[in-house]
Amino acid sequence: MRISNNTLYDLGINTINSQLTTLVKTQQQVSTGRRILTPSDDPVASATALETDSSLSVAKQQLDNIGNARSTLSLEESVVSNINRVYQDARQTIVSAGNSGLSASDRATLATTLRSNYNELLTLANSRDGQGNYFFSGFATSTQPFTQTTGAAVYAGDQGQRKLQITPSRQIDISDSGQDLFKPGVAGADPFASIENFITALGNGSIGNQVTTGTGAANTGSASIATAVSASATPPTSAVTLTYNAGTTSFTTVSQDPAWNNLTIAYTDPTTTTFYGVSFTISGTPSNNDKFTINNATDAALGGIDTALNNALRVQSTIGSRLNELDSTETTNQDTTLQYQTKLSSLRDVDLTRAISDLTQQQNSLQAAQKSFLSIQGLSLFKLL
């Protein structure tokens, strides 16, 4: 076989270029720390790495969501805790108002204190989170949930609960609606109405003979109730429930106060009835089983505040449960993230010890090829003449 000078040169150059390419690739692997520089280096591992990298990104986003959810829920828990404190303060003031020896000036002072409680409660009900969203407006995060009106406060939000994805299959609530927390408009459960009604009762004179009335939330008729009391009235010591029986066109009472229990009131529109100095008028067209309540002002207010407090404690408990879930989920997500990172490392990262050894060997091979090429290309018959 005859080897020409051109063939000799081409073989030498191709060999050097091939070794140089291998050397450069190894040098890139060492400098980047990556075994796979292009998908063609390992197509199967590259495809697996892409899937794993996508899963890792999702896991990291869910960890971010857990952090955001914890921050929002921690702030909400603090707000609800302050709401409970306001309830306790208002309750103490209402109990103090039961002293029959209070003067008009004393009652005015207590009314001022309760108004302060009302205003603080309204401020807390309109609290915002770190992004400026209202906590208790449901999905309507830019809408102020509560506005003070005569007698109570009007809710302008909805009943939605905002959520964040914390695992592929789990979304966690990061808010609670004002409807659920404050029960606006629900008789005997609305703290705004309870405080406002008691402030009104304080202004009407001695709290001992003041009464409040309520209309059943499930009523379907058009009837209403109103009361008036005399100075010598003896209000019920426990709430009185009046239930309409359409068959007998009459109301019957149920109460823990024996004097007010099991009374029958024949009904025509309107009907005014007086028991123990307490007069009440029912007017309109009631439906069967429609209910009304009569209660002394103090018990009604305390009952409303206690109901609101229990409801707020329930919400606070659910917030605590969600925070605990975030802690346990975060631990699981961190383990999952570490697994993905370990898998990616095994797929894409280079073994530096081996790569550096290969780099040294390839450098020696390239140098040997270069030196041998110089020796061969220096061969010539003309040197023998």
Detail the topology: elements first, then pairings.
Layout: H1 5-32, H2 43-96, H3 104-125, E1 146-149, E2 152-155, E3 163-167, E4 170-173, H4 178-182, H5 191-203, E5 211-215, E6 224-229, E7 240-245, E8 250-255, E9 264-266, E10 271-275, E11 278-283, E12 291-296, H6 297-348, H7 352-377
Antiparallel strand pairs: 1-2, 3-4, 5-12, 6-11, 7-8, 7-12, 8-9, 10-11
Helix pairs in contact: 1-7, 2-3, 2-6, 3-5, 5-6
Structural summary, described in words:
There is one protein chain. The model has no long low-confidence stretch (mean pLDDT 85). The chain contains seven helices and twelve strands. The strands form four sheets. A five-stranded antiparallel beta sheet has the order 5-12-7-8-9. A three-stranded antiparallel beta sheet has the order 6-11-10, with no helix packed on it. A two-stranded antiparallel sheet has the order 1-2. A hairpin with a 2-residue loop joins strand 1 and strand 2. Helix content is 52%, strand content 16%. Helix 3 runs antiparallel to helix 5. The radius of gyration is 40 Å and the shape is rod-shaped. It folds into two domains: 235 residues, f41 fragment of flagellin, N-terminal domain, CATH 1.20.1330; 70 residues, no CATH class. By secondary structure, it is of the alpha+beta class.
